[in-house]
Design goal:
The chain has helices spanning 3-33, 46-55, 68-80, 104-107, and strands at residues 128-131, 144-146, 151-156, 159-164, 169-175, 183-188, 194-199, 204-208, 213-218, 226-232, 235-240, 244-249, 256-261, 267-272, 278-283, 288-292, 306-308, 315-320, 327-332, 338-343, 348-354, 359-364, 370-375, 382-386, 391-396, 403-408, 415-419, 423-427. The protein has 454 residues and is mainly β. The chain has 2 domains: 21-57 and 72-91, no CATH class; 128-432 and 439-453, YVTN repeat-like/Quinoprotein amine dehydrogenase (Methylamine Dehydrogenase, Chain H). Strand 2 (144-146) and strand 3 (151-156) form a beta hairpin. It starts with a helix and ends in a 27-residue tail after the last strand.
């Protein structure tokens, strides 16, 4: 065969093999693209697999090699392993058979698993707005408080007004003379009937709101205005611009029983702990003090338990935690902008969060682990925080100027906020308690649930 014929025959042969090669390559690629089988060894039965793989050759074995013991072993192996099984390899274990230990009708009524808690709705707007003309725009004063009898007290200029949340009625409690005013602080006694009123002239008046009459005037303790008040049963703590804190026993004539000296400037925040054992005070000197009544002395100035200097601006906002007795939250002014958390037993700062704006007031949720803060420039908002993560849950806007004061309803659901825009707003920010006792149908209390104002 010459070279030309040879080349032509080779070309014909190569052309005839091309389709086969393509088919082979396609099958090869298809096999390569398949997922590999990765057996689960924990789900394999190797003894059973060996038996199944070798059992087919039973008939081909030499009869001479068979023995009674071998036959007995095979019989026993067949009884041990279920011969109906056809799968030797398994991808995964079979799910266990559920065991029902109780009858369905009984288990349906007894459920030990806690139901999934749905996230509550937090209204972003105030549910009610009232005018508050002549509200003094002063960061260091405390002009709003909500008493245990569901009556809100607010000082507007020289007058204290009472707003009854049960029926929405407003009344005037007292108007102070121009020379003695303006009013610089208000605070309800625990009974919700008596109220203390601090004045610009350094005096403190005690009033009976039910009888609408003045009971007495506390004098001689301070040399300048009284901007902060805090009740502890029959003891009224007063904080003045002179930097002094005075404990007054309102039952006796000589009412000054203890004096706390530690602040260098005006005392603008005062809060007693729930036990009444510790008093937290914040001042315009950027200081936060913790005082303990067991260390108090009537003969000399009492030494503080802790002197905390972490804030770099005035400390007015103070709030004791309702679910942890030694936890205190404090807020700093415009130069600080931080909310700090303190262990008041040790004086340690547990956490500090920069809020980005002046902190004017703080309130804990009584029903959940949440904290509400009110702020100034630039948003003038109320911010709801989840504790202890301090994740923002909501921001409530509506005020057009700094939100100076906040007060909480007796049931802990509604918050009232008063701002320099001369408005008083009510927010359903803390929701309704999970377990609420039904109100009695007969002989109702003189104060009603705050939800009636909606």
């Amino acid at each position: 065969m010459d070279a030309g014929s040879w080349n032509s025959s080779v070309n014909l042969k190569d052309q005839s093999r091309c389709p086969l090669q393509e088919q082979f390559m396609q099958r090869k690629n298809a096999r390569e693209n398949l997922d590999r089988f990765i057996p689960n060894r924990s789900a394999m039965d190797f003894d059973y697999a060996h038996y199944m793989l070798t059992g087919g050759r039973k008939g081909k074995e030499n009869p001479a090699s068979s023995s009674p013991s071998r036959e007995a072993y095979r019989t026993r192996l067949a009884e041990t392993f279920n011969m109906n099984r056809t799968r030797i390899l398994a991808f995964k274990n079979k799910p266990p058979v559920p065991v029902e230990s109780f009858p369905r009708e009984f288990s349906s009524s007894v459920n030990h698993d806690k139901p999934t808690k749905s996230r509550r709705h937090i209204p972003q707007t105030s549910e009610r707005t009232l005018d508050a003309p002549d509200l003094v725009d002063d960061y260091y004063l405390n002009l709003l408080d909500w008493g245990s009898c569901n009556v809100l007290a607010i000082a507007l200029g020289n007058t204290v007004y009472l707003w009854d949340a049960s029926n929405g009625s407003t009344s005037e409690l007292v108007s102070i003379d121009e020379g003695d005013g303006p009013i610089t602080s208000v605070n309800w006694a625990p009974d919700g009937r008596h109220i203390a009123i601090g004045l610009n002239n350094s005096e403190v008046q005690l009033w009976d709101s039910t009888a609408n009459r003045q009971l007495r005037t506390l004098r001689g303790g301070h040399r300048s205005r009284v901007g902060s008040l805090a009740w502890n049963n029959h003891i009224l703590a007063t904080g003045g611009m002179d930097g002094m804190i005075i404990n007054n026993d309102v039952r006796i004539r000589e009412h000054i029983v203890e004096t706390y000296r530690g602040h260098e400037q005006e005392v603008c925040g005062l809060k007693w702990s729930a036990s009444g054992q510790q008093l937290a005070s914040g001042g315009n000197d950027n200081l936060l003090h913790i005082w303990d009544r067991s260390m108090a002395s009537s003969n000399s100035a009492t030494q503080w338990l802790h002197r905390l200097e972490d804030h770099i601006s005035a400390v007015k906002a103070l709030a004791w935690c309702p679910f942890q007795s030694n936890l205190l939250a404090s807020g700093g002014g415009g130069g600080d902008r931080c909310i700090k958390f303190w262990n008041t037993h040790t004086g340690a700062c547990l956490n500090s969060v920069d809020t980005g704006s002046q902190v004017c007031a703080l309130l804990w949720n009584k029903n959940e682990r949440e904290l509400l803060s009110s702020h100034g420039f630039t948003q003038n908002q109320l911010t709801l925080w989840k504790y202890p993560s301090m994740v923002k849950m909501a921001e409530l806007n509506g005020h057009t100027s700094r939100v100076l004061f906040m007060a909480q309803s007796p049931d802990g659901c509604t918050v009232a906020s008063a701002a320099a825009d001369e408005t008083l707003r009510f927010w359903n920010v803390f929701g309704v308690p999970e377990v609420a006792k039904p109100a009695p149908k007969s002989n109702p209390e003189p104060f009603a649930h705050v939800n009636r104002i909606r």
